[in-house]
Each structure stands twice: as C-alpha cells, then as structure tokens.
Specification:
Helix content: 25-40%
Oligomer: single chain
Number of strands: 8
Order of helices and strands: EHEEHEEHHEEE
Radius of gyration: 15 Å
Number of helices: 4
Largest sheet: 5 strands, antiparallel
C-alpha cells in the first residue's frame, strides 16, 4: 500500500518542512527502507495545487503503521509554528494531523493519537464506512475530522 504524506507549513517553508519530516522518518530504523521522496504531478491547466515535494511510504499490509503514526505525531509536537501533515491512502482517503492540535498533548494523548493515525492507515474503507470520532469538528474541505482533544481521522463523508 502506498501512503503519501504532504506537509503544510504556517511559515510558508513547505520544502524545508517536507525535508525535515523526510529526514525524521529516515532516522527510524523501522521506516527508513519504506520512505521515498516524490515530486507531485503538475496540476492541469488552471487548477490550483502545491508544487512541493511529497513523501511516500510503500507499506505492505500489516506494515509499520504504528511507527508511521508515532513518527508523524512526535515530529509535529517538536515543530515551531503551525504545521500540517496530510496522509493520503491509495483510495484517496486523507487523514490530517496538525501541530496546533498535538503540541499540548500529554504522553498518553500523543500515544492515543499515534494509534488513531496508525488505525486510519490500516483500515481498508469503502466511502461512508469510516469510524466516527466523538465530539469532532468536520473539515469540509478535506472530509477529515479533527477532535477537540487532538484526535484525528477520516470522516464518514463530507458534505
């Protein structure tokens, strides 16, 4: 399964943030063999799109999803400014995690969030079957949910 990570940086340094996350993931012995850099396709004429780098992970079923979840959460906790990591699954399902939501989490909260990210990566979903997250706000632009306590996950359908 190919998971694509894209980074958004509040300070506008998307390339620097992407490079930093790439290096962070490469330091993890469980992940380094799965991590690759990608240049996204140029958007079609008139379409808006980011022209930064993407990071892809080629994970076998049952692969190191827990390590991916933990690495993303810890990386975001250690960033200054607002950062966003969007994890995109092959079916187009996206999970968005932001530093604004994870920075103040306790160790237990960060661990729970990392497990939720890993669970989102492990699940094969049909549209509309993703698990709901209690007391979550829906991001209508991406269809993702972000809980008030920092927990994230794909929504059952934005609309």
């Amino acid at each position: 399964m190919r998971v694509t990570l894209s980074v958004g940086a509040g300070d506008g340094d998307v390339a620097g943030a992407c490079d930093d996350l790439y290096q962070w993931l490469r330091q993890d012995p469980d992940l380094r063999v799965f991590v690759r850099r990608e240049v996204p396709a140029v958007p079609s004429g008139g379409a808006m799109g980011a022209l930064g780098e993407l990071i892809s992970l080629l994970l076998a079923p049952g692969g190191p999803t827990a390590a991916v979840g933990a690495a993303v959460v810890v990386w975001l906790q250690n960033r200054r400014g607002n950062q966003t990591v969007t994890l995109t699954l092959p079916d187009g399902t996206q999970t968005v995690v932001t530093s604004e939501k994870v920075r103040g989490l306790t160790a237990e909260g960060a661990s729970e969030l990392a497990e939720r990210v890993a669970a989102a990566l492990r699940q094969e979903r049909d549209p509309g079957t993703a698990p709901a997250i209690p007391e979550a706000e829906e991001n209508r632009a991406t269809g993702d949910t972000v809980g008030g306590d920092g927990r994230v996950g794909p929504s059952g359908g934005a609309g």
